Amino acid sequence: MIKGIKFVGVPVTDQDRALKFWTEAVGMKVATDQPFNEKQRWIELKVPGADTGISLFTPEGHESRIGQFQSISFWCDDVFATADAMKKKDVVFAQEPKKEHWGTSAVFRDPDGNMYVLSSR
Fold first, then answer.
1. Is 71 exposed, middle or buried (0-12, 13-18, 19+ CB in 10 A)?
2. Percent of residues, the chain, with pLDDT higher than 70
3. Domain boundaries 7-120, CATH class
């Protein structure tokens, strides 16, 4: 049986720039950073205190996914406070935090223009 999700893929153009963004601005921790092929490394990042994470890797032939909305929602206890902290680290928000009847959410961008949801649990 499936036990969980280990990571989800995040397509990037520059792995070093993406690694800096996700670790320094967002706060993820490196789980794996090793050579994969002559063009890319295999980089897995973990959310501190969680079993899940992301992989900064673009499969060959999937470059068109870069700069798109990614179906990934990161949750936090306080979307407004987390967004404020991320903005202080130069993270750009495509949608400011807002409360809805179902919860609170915002949308942020990475350096490649990929967009992600930040939401309440």
1. exposed
2. 100
3. alpha beta
